[in-house]
Amino acid sequence: QVQLVESGGGLVQPGGSLRLSCAASGFTFSSYVMKWYRQAPGKERELVTEISSAGSLTNYYVDSVKGRFTISRDNAKNTVYLQMNNLKPEDTAVYYCYRGGLFGSWGQGTQVTVSL
User: Fold this and answer.
1) From CA 85, how far away is CA 108, in angstroms rounded?
2) Which pairs count as long-range contacts for 103-110, CB under 8 Å and 24+ apart, including other chains?
3) In whole angstroms, what separates CA 22 from the centre of its chain?
4) Where does the pLDDT of residue 107 fall: very low under 50, low under 70, confident under 90, or very high at 90 and above?
5) Rounded CA gap, 113 and 92, in Å?
6) Residue 57 has pLDDT above 80, yes or no
7) Measured on CA atoms in the order 45, 51, 6, 25, is the torsion positive or negative?
8) Rounded-to-integer distance, Cα 25 and Cα 97, Å
9) What backbone torsions phi and psi does residue 13 show, to the nearest 5 degrees?
10) Cα 40 to chain centroid, rounded
11) What is the pLDDT of residue 103?
12) What is the model's pLDDT at position 47?
């Protein structure tokens, strides 16, 4: 059974940093592209970034996070990360881990709130 469990969200002040983690199980993690999405209140879910199966390609970041967010993965630990720096109030959202492939799978999400 595929499981994706996000962690690391929380409340942070503008300019702060958070590191999200997504622990995967139930499939061959190293064979899949992994993605981070987010959904802000009242908005559609959007793709934030993605990383290739081997971790060698991170060729997409949504414009609003370029230069501030970094995706990475550790295939030995079956975990994908999202390092978020210089956070802004507009980054407030639920962040979801997503496994690509023919049958995609979602995690339960982790709340990130950027506020004074």
Assistant:
1) 23
2) 105/2, 105/4, 106/4, 107/4, 107/5, 107/6, 107/22, 108/4, 108/5, 108/6, 109/6, 109/39, 110/6, 110/7, 110/8, 110/9, 110/20
3) 7
4) very high
5) 5
6) no
7) positive
8) 13
9) -80, 155
10) 14
11) 86
12) 97
- Tokens read off for 74: 């550790």
Q: How confident is the model at residue 68 (pLDDT cuts 50, 70, 90)?
A: very high
Residue 80 main-chain phi, psi, to 5 deg: -115, 145
- What confidence tens digit (pLDDT) does each residue in 17-55 have? 999 999 999 999 999 999 999 999 999 999 999 999 987
74 CB neighbour count, 10 Å cutoff: 12
What tokens does 96 get?
A: 């979801």
Instruction: Note the pLDDT of residue 33.
Output: 93
Identify whether the C-beta of residue 49 lies closer than 8 Å to the C-beta of residue 63: no
Let me know the angle formed at the C-alpha of 48 by 43 and 54, rounded to the nearest 5 degrees.
150
